[in-house]
TrEMBL record:
Residues 7-174 form the Era-type G domain. One of its GO terms (molecular function) is small ribosomal subunit rRNA binding. Residues 124-127 are annotated as: G4. Pfam families: KH_2 (PF07650), MMR_HSR1 (PF01926). GO terms for biological process: ribosomal small subunit assembly. Residues 153-155 are annotated as: G5. The lineage of its organism: Bacteria, Pseudomonadati, Pseudomonadota, Gammaproteobacteria, Enterobacterales. Keywords: Cell membrane, Cytoplasm, GTP-binding, Membrane, Nucleotide-binding, Ribosome biogenesis, RNA-binding, rRNA-binding. This is GTPase Era. It comes from Candidatus Tachikawaea gelatinosa. Monomer. It is found in: Cytoplasm; Cell membrane.
Amino acid sequence: MNEKLCQCGFVLIVGRSNVGKSTLFNRLIGKKISITSHKIHTTQKPVIGIYNKNVYQSIYIDTPGFFNKKYMDTNFLLKKKTDTSFNEVNLILFIIEKTIWTEEDENMFDTLNHTDIPTILVINKIDKIHDKTKLLPFIKYLSKKSKNDIIPVSAKKNDNISLLFNRICKYLSIKKRLFSGNNVIHQTKKHFISEIIREKIMRFLNKELPYLVNIKINSFLFKNKQDIFYINSTIWIKKNRQKKIIIGEHANVIKLISKAARKDIEFFLKKKVYLDLWVQSKEFKKT
């Protein structure tokens, strides 16, 4: 194979909410790029991650927890993210969980069957199947629906991930690398940092979480003399009353969020970080 060429392509990860798409995405990339939580709709926008290994470059796209024909017809998932149209996607990973098959899964499956793009059906969270004897009959049930590959995995436990990766590589095209070999994320550092903050909000607030929170990075500066990043960010919420939830009594919640976010941001940037978090309501100017 020409040294300037490799096996390269886009892999779209789809499935309903909470089936472990982002966990699998991070496992395939080899780094935590897409945030995860037990809450539905954790991923709000498509996230692109690049994995380079020898002559392979697989570009994964983690999608929100819904997928329909409108997305496919409008190229929504790839629009403004890459120079690639939906029709140029090499492979779709359709993720389900355990031995659960819902009406939503059926609808997604039917939609995917009407495309010309190869699909691998990935059964995730097999480590959480209490009665393992149910897995094989479930795979046989699915195999009657489609001739697509069916691969059971545990993204959390790293079970069968190598098998899945090897199968993915068979669908990649021989072409020049679309990204340099050092690239891992396609998003900006600011975007990634804002997602880390949002992940910590979801972790510490759990069911009390105001569903729609927007994170804005107001400033992102590196001080050479101090060898530290100074980051100022605002957590925007809809209602004034939600500020108390995020801040907490004696600011205990916002301190937990800030501490956990700072730790992950330092790991990402490989530098010390001073993180200044503010909470602001869109109702602020009305009161």
